[in-house]
Amino acid sequence: MKLNIANPATGAQKSLEIDDEKKVRIFLDKRINEDVVGDPLGDEFKGYIFRITGGFDKDGFAMKQGVMLNKRVRLLLDGSTGHFIPKRDGQQKRKSIRGAIVGPDIKVVHLVIVKKGEKELPGITDKTVPRRLGPKRVGKIRKLFNLTKKEDVRPYVIRREIKKEGKKSKFKAPKIQRLITPLVLQRRKRLDTLKKRRYLKSKQEAADYAKLVAQLGKDKREALLSKKRSQKRPSKKETGEQKATETK
After folding, report:
1. β-pair partners for 15
2. What is the mean pLDDT of each run of 10 residues along the chain (248 residues)?
3. End-to-end distance of the chain based on CA atoms, in angstroms?
């Protein structure tokens, strides 16, 4: 079995090949995000605690968190949980996924060091790999340099130098995410003003429409009443007087 061991504290990682099945037996029936004591792997791993973060089976199918099986299954994926990249909105596809429980068919296991042991692991704990890129988000930059919210974070962005043969070296810096500037506040204020203006306009239009509907209904009722009055039959008294005038 192949073990990919990573050390988040130093940024280093290394792959180890272990052929002894007795040593590898400690990973069987363990699932992703479960801690494993590394003492059975050898004296150099004494005191280490590892956490399983994933792996691959003998055919190259990746383990998936949440699938509590020690075999391969076919799941309908939509791209929101990984293992499938949809080419259009709403696309789904049924793909083969390896369960999250380690079994005898697993050939590669990804491990992260949770607790360091007594001895140093060569290539993992005895060296520090510098980060290639610095933080981009405002909150993480403030946390790294211990800045307050009133301080400007733009001078603290980590820049990296790019060198090319025969050309002048230049520096690249990431675009700061979630940075609140006067321009951003101005845009937010403008959007709020437009939103309030649309609300007042729609409210006034609704009131005008309700007033127009009420006026139309009133005119319609008055026209109907006048029509009924014009078509009203004369009473018996009126017919009697009309006959009397005719006989004279």
Report:
1. 4
2. 90 89 89 91 89 92 91 91 90 93 92 90 86 89 91 90 88 92 94 97 96 95 88 64 65
3. 130
pLDDT at 244 (0 to 100): 66
Cα separation, 74 vs 97, whole angstroms: 6
pTM: 0.63
CB atoms within 10 A of CB 67: 18
**Separation CA 212–CA 138 (nearest Å):** 53
The whole-number pLDDT of residue 98 equals 93
- Dist. CA 57–CA 65, nearest whole Å: 14
d(CA 144, CA 78): 36
What was the pLDDT predicted at 125? 87
Q: Report the candidate in 24, 31, 25 with the shortest Cα–Cα distance to residue 2.
A: 24
Q: Which two structure tokens, joined as six digits, stand for 125?
A: 């704990």
Distance (Å) of CA 242 to CA 16, 53, 235, 236, 237: 123, 108, 11, 10, 9
- Rg of the chain over Cα atoms, rounded to whole angstroms, equals 39
Which 8-state DSSP code applies to residue 124? T
Per-residue pLDDT at 32 = 93
What angle (nearest 5°) sits at the alpha carbon of residue 86, between those of residues 80 and 92? Answer: 75
Torsion of CA 140, 144, 148, 150, to 10 degrees: -60
Contact 162, 133 (CB under 8 A): no
Q: Residue type at 61?
A: F
Residues 166-187, buried b or exposed e (16+ Cβ, 10 A)? eeeeeeeeeebeeeeeeeeeee
